[in-house]
Amino acid sequence: xxxxxxxxxxxxxxxxxxxxxxxxxxxxxxxxxxxxxxxxxxxxxxxxxxxxxxxxxxxxxxxxxxxxxxxxxxxxxxxxxxxxxxxxxxxxxxxxxxxxxxxxxxxxxxxxxxxxxxxxxxxxxxxxxxxxxxxxxxxxxxxxxxxxxxxxxxxxxxxxxxxxxxxxxxxxxxxxxxxxxxxxxxxxxxxxxxxxxxxxxxxxxxxxxxxxxxxxxxxxxxxxxxxxxxxxxxxxxxxxxxxxxxxxxxxxxxxxxxxxxxxxxxxxxxxxxxxxxxxxxxxxxxxxxxxxxxxxxxxxxxxxxxxxxxxxxxxxxxxxxxxxxxxxxxxxxxxxxxxxxxxxxxxxxxxxxxxxxxxxxxxxxxxxxxxxxxxxxxxxxxxxxxxxxxxxxxxxxxxxxxxxxxxxxxxxxx
Length: 414
Ligand SMILES: Cc1ncc(COP(=O)(O)O)c(C=O)c1O
Ligand SMILES: [Zn+2]
What we know:
Layout: E1 10-13, E2 19-20, E3 35-38, H1 41-47, E4 86-88, H2 90-95, E5 100-105, H3 116-128, E6 133-137, H4 141-153, E7 156-162, H5 167-175, E8 179-183, H6 187-201, E9 204-205, H7 213-218, H8 220-228, E10 236-240, H9 245-260, E11 268-274, H10 279-286, H11 310-319, E12 323-327, H12 329-343, H13 349-363, E13 372-377, H14 385-389, H15 402-412
Parallel strand pairs: 5-13, 6-7, 6-9, 7-8, 10-11, 10-13, 11-12
Antiparallel strand pairs: 1-2, 1-3, 4-5
Helix pairs in contact: 3-4, 4-5, 8-9, 9-11, 10-11, 12-13
The protein binds pyridoxal-5'-phosphate and zinc ion (ZN).
The site of pyridoxal-5'-phosphate (PLP) has 20 residues, from α4, α9 and α13.
């Protein structure tokens, strides 16, 4: 267990800039705006140097404790959240006419999605506050992640999920022993209900968009990307966007490193959304504010009417000189298949959306031939087999004899 002694950061409202101390902990500003942690970078710089990071092992998100809003790491970190590979695909980059393609493979986290980064830090934070029941509303992955890591760290998890969430995700939640309250409504309904319960019973909320600890956990993906590239930022990062927490967090991670002087630029962040759930990209294109939509996309994890971290998402794209891009459900399913078969990374549709966005941007010449590109793989395809199955055709079976096999093989292998 590592411990960090330092002045804890403040929380600042991203809308009215009101500041709050970190104790007692609060979720949102009195004005309704989301909060963000503000660190004392001079102090962090005085106690921590990138040269001190153990070069022989990138072991977990806890490697970056001085930049996390908790006092210590858990006793047992062997479940290993984070420290996922950044894999390069030079042949694909060549084909698409840019310099290098990297995929940050966060499907390899314990519960199969990037959300583990946030759950891991949230559980430690809850423990430090003396809470041992965490509640979350989720389209599936955040819930499965909370359930998984709660089982490991010995706390209780209560999950509210739309009853339309993929069966694999609901099953995963129950397999890890969490309590599940399926909601006959949308993700937005489940979200509102869960926050009502937090207010009424004081349970710790692991909800994206109201708990600033979520961004702090997810930002570790940016630290890892920067470190894996020897502190040279890539040019663009493609991020699938639903609530906007991940993209806001990626920005925050690079912002922290820039403030510490460890990198020299923040990469352009590209927000990828489904055409059928486009609130953030619509606002980016109009230059205005977020207007809720009626979402309906096969990519369930990014199917969101009102993005709960929309303001952070807009700021992330605008301040990094990035852009938004929309992809159709058909393009997402096509990209899922192309990605699995050309990179060996099998993603769920929400995650494949980022790859679809990258393919589209390359086609539209929005990537220059000198650019180094990172695509985030945020969730494994095994979470939603029924969508992926729409994309492939299982061949008819053959009789177990060589003649019958050879007859079918003529069609199968040309
Ligand atoms: C696999 C996956 N990708 C992308 C997202 C989108 O993240 P955010 O809602 O923070 O924008 C989610 C969120 O549930 C997800 O589970
Ligand atoms: Zn405010």
